[in-house]
Design goal:
two-stranded antiparallel ribbon, two-stranded antiparallel sheet, globular, 3 helices, alpha+beta, 21% helix, 4 strands, binds zinc ion, Herpes Virus-1
Length: 95
């Protein structure tokens, strides 16, 4: 499904519960476009910052950079917004 399709979620919630179906898994709206991040999308979590998931395409990460970051379990990625506002290094290595 193209990223451009679908509902836009509120910008302030990293996780949205499905009101119609409480048993459904929560929806993770992308921190850039605020549309749902699907299981089969390439997506990355702003783990040390805002806790939003991001579509790879929305972050500007290249496919190679994305693969490297997701393959490296000790690497934490942060989004541009957190990088600028919270002074967190772009990629942090867990101790
Ligand atoms: Zn997005
Ligand atoms: Zn962030």
């Amino acid at each position: 499904m193209p990223v451009s399709a679908g509902k836009v979620y509120p910008a302030d919630q990293p996780m949205v519960f499905n009101a119609q179906n409480p048993n459904a898994p929560p929806i993770y709206p992308c921190g850039v476009c605020h549309k749902e991040v699907h299981d089969n999308d390439q997506a990355i979590l702003c783990e040390s910052g805002c806790n939003f998931w991001f579509h790879r395409g929305c972050t500007g990460l290249t496919e190679a950079a994305f693969q490297m970051l997701t393959a490296e379990v000790y690497a934490e990625w942060v989004c541009d917004k957190c990088l600028q506002s919270k002074n967190i290094p772009l990629v942090k290595f867990k101790p």
